[in-house]
Amino acid sequence: MLELRVNTITVEEYLKLRDRVGWKKLSREQAQKALENSLITVGAYLADQPIGMGRIVGDGAVVCYVQDLIIPPQAQRLGVGTMILNRLEEFVEQLRLPGTEMMFDLMCAKGRELFYTQHGFLARPTETLGPGMIKYLRED
């Protein structure tokens, strides 16, 4: 039976899931710090093995970002991503202060836009919102 667990993803599980989807390698220290600084992590487990995870980063008042929604190919199209995303959204909704609006954002991988638009996210740019942007900081 599929089980969602909150704030239990280990560094090893996180790094292994990232590797299974071909994402950039992180140092163990980066991974540890990323998990520690997350507002929440949600892991999906089947037979006690992690088959997906997601996490939220942000300030918890004005903006929260879906970060690292990772579902390896073998677990895709089984509803795992939807279950994790729904749990993350529930968490953010609980943080939202009464009478306020919270931005719930993400940057999705190329080709994954339909999944997110089906869950109510707006693709950018729009008439009022510019494109998302990124800058990588690293030593050369």
Describe the structure.
Residues 2-138 form the N-acetyltransferase domain. It holds the Pfam family Acetyltransf_7. This is GNAT family N-acetyltransferase. With 140 residues, this protein is an alpha+beta fold. The chain is 29% helix and 24% strand. It has 4 helices and 5 strands. It has helices at 11-20, 28-36, 80-95, 113-117; strands spanning 2-6, 40-46, 49-58, 63-70, 103-106. Strands 1-2-3-4-5 form a 5-stranded mixed β-sheet. Strand 2 and strand 3 form a beta hairpin. The radius of gyration is 15 Å and the shape is globular. The N and C termini lie far apart (46 Å). The mean pLDDT is 95.
Which regions contain 5 or more consecutive residues with pLDDT less than 50?
A: none
Number of strands: 5
The biggest beta sheet reads:
5 strands, mixed
The rounded distance between the terminal residues' Cα atoms is 46 Å
Element-level helix/strand string: EHHEEEHEH
What is the alpha-carbon Rg in Å? 15 Å
Give the overall form.
globular
Strand content: 15-25%
The whole-number mean of residue pLDDT values reads 95
User: Helical residue percent?
Assistant: 25-40%
Number of helices: 4
Strand line-up across the major sheet: 1-2-3-4-5
Q: Which structural class do you get from the secondary structure elements?
A: alpha+beta
